[in-house]
Design brief:
2 domains; flavoprotein; monooxygenase; alpha/beta; 29% helix; five-stranded parallel sheet; FAD/NAD(P)-binding domain; FAD/NAD-bd_sf
Length: 497
């Protein structure tokens, strides 16, 4: 069946062709919108759709053939998967695609398996899997015009398109290597697979267990019992895990102490927390505003403030992820550049509107933004921008003007951090303003701004965030009731644009 999909795509080379990398939410949307007027194929490394929402029982610790998998060979880690029982950070109405509401029996803040079912239903409704090739890995994306004559001759086919894409079996990077061509390439691979690790001097002195939240599974909870757990970083992963450990796990299984090391904004929220008031008072949850300077012994570290944290059993990094695209990085086309700090790839560009590669606009990145409350609406609008450009309904500015626009956006993003880490942050509270960015997408794609949806977000969800998350009461947010405040079976209107 999958081989037929590949052949069908090849046989359609006479039409405008689009190759989509990844079948998470953005890849699914791209398949839906671009299939109408184009010859498309969506390449997915895993056995089914969903991206990180597709729970994977395997990780680096238990995978039977990790070293030979294509993903591990090229990325150095196993592909990311949400852990069991994760609950979304947004109410379900904010996670719907237009014209396709969630089932009413789903929780207000959906569990991962509910949203995964929603994605499956969406694919079935629009018959999208017929465009998808699973268990296949994209190892290289090259501009055909930059290939040497020897490289062109060795591909065994007449090269007539813009891009040459090397693919192979995901289970073994040495097997079944072959090539596809495309006029356009959509990158929808997500950015939650390659963990960030802060630089810590003398880390080798530490004799306890250390890992990134990337690797967390429910069975890790037993490791924490009666231990001193240090969490370095205050990201949403840290917030989720604190909630799971202290609010959703039996007290008999709790660590005897958790030390949270994070920036001043995060720590100030915890200091005013009512949800964690008891744990902070009893010193079960200790707070430290600073960075780790280095380890001084096998169980002790010193902070940049000069304070010591001692008797550490487990060090968990909640320090986010890098942007990583080995299928582009290993070529000489130089289509993107990374902004790095200590070899950590915080962002990349130049991208016009955080979407279009300025140096080659037919290379389009979807779903790279984060911290947004209008997450699915934003991804859908990004896809519509891409579709209307590919279908030649809209045009982009000159390369010079797109580069100026990128440089302006990047400089604005450096307000808090010069290292570029906020470039893709699109939020109501910090980073690029969410409404402003959505309006930019609407203007670019010549589509209407969804006033109704954004009013619900602004008048319902933002106040909830302000009284819960922004005041250190994250565990309370997911207990909020919202559905009675919006129309029954709501989703953004199908006929709005």
């Amino acid at each position: 069946m999958e081989q037929n999909i590949e052949n069908i795509y090849k046989n359609g080379y006479d039409k405008n062709s689009v190759l989509i990398i990844g079948s998470g939410p953005s890849g699914i949307l791209a398949s839906k919108y671009l299939s109408k007027n184009n010859n498309i194929i969506c390449i997915e490394n895993r056995e089914d759709i969903g991206g990180q929402w597709n729970f994977d029982k395997y990780n680096e610790e238990n995978h039977p053939n990790l070293q030979q998998t294509a993903f591990y060979h090229h990325y150095g880690v196993w592909s990311s998967s949400l852990y069991e029982n994760l609950q979304a950070n947004l109410p379900r109405f904010q996670m719907t695609f237009k014209g396709f509401p969630t089932k009413p029996e789903y929780q207000e803040f959906m569990k991962a398996e509910e949203f995964y079912e929603y994605l499956q239903d969406y694919c079935a409704h629009h018959q999208l899997k017929k465009y998808m090739l699973f268990n296949t890995f994209v190892s290289s994306v090259r501009l055909i015009k930059n290939l040497s004559e020897d490289e062109k001759q060795n591909k065994g086919q007449l090269l007539t398109k813009r891009f040459l894409i090397e693919i192979k079996d995901s289970s073994d990077y040495r097997k079944n290597v072959r090539y596809l061509q495309a006029d356009n390439v959509i990158v929808a691979t997500g950015h939650y697979s390659v963990p960030n690790y802060p630089k810590i001097s003398n880390l080798e002195l530490f004799q306890g267990e250390k890992f990134h939240t990337h690797y967390f599974r429910q069975n890790y909870l037993q490791k924490f019992t009666n231990k001193h757990l240090v969490i370095y970083g205050g990201s949403q992963s840290a917030q989720d895990l604190l909630c799971i450990i202290l609010k959703q796990t039996d007290r008999s299984q709790h660590p005897y102490k958790i030390t949270l090391i994070a920036n001043i904004v995060i720590i100030d929220r915890f200091k005013q927390s009512e949800a964690y008031k008891e744990e902070i008072k009893n010193k079960q949850l200790a707070l430290a505003v600073t960075n780790v300077k280095g380890f001084v012994s096998e169980k002790s570290l010193i902070l940049e403030s000069g304070e010591y944290v001692e008797n550490i059993d487990i060090l968990m990094f909640a320090s986010g992820y890098q942007y990583c695209f080995p299928f582009l990085e290993n070529s000489n086309d130089n289509l993107i550049e990374f902004v790095k700090e200590n070899e950590r790839k915080n962002c990349f560009g130049p991208l016009y509107k955080r979407l279009f590669c300025v140096r080659e606009p037919n290379l389009i990145f979807l779903g790279m933004t984060f911290n947004t409350a209008t997450i699915q609406q934003m991804f859908e609008r990004q896809v519509i921008c891409a579709q209307r450009f590919i279908d030649k309904i809209i045009s982009l500015p000159s390369q010079e003007d797109m580069l100026k626009d990128f440089e302006y956006d990047f400089q604005k993003s450096q307000y808090n951090f010069k290292d570029g880490r906020d470039f893709f942050k699109v939020s109501h509270f910090t980073g690029q303003n969410e409404y402003e960015y959505s309006k930019q997408l609407c203007e670019l794609a010549q589509m209407q701004f969804d006033e109704e949806f954004n009013a619900y977000v602004k008048n319902i969800f933002v106040p909830i965030s302000e009284k819960t998350v922004l005041k250190g009461n994250y565990p309370w947010m997911k207990q909020e009731k919202i559905s009675h405040l919006i129309p029954e079976s709501y989703s953004p209107k199908e006929d709005l644009f």
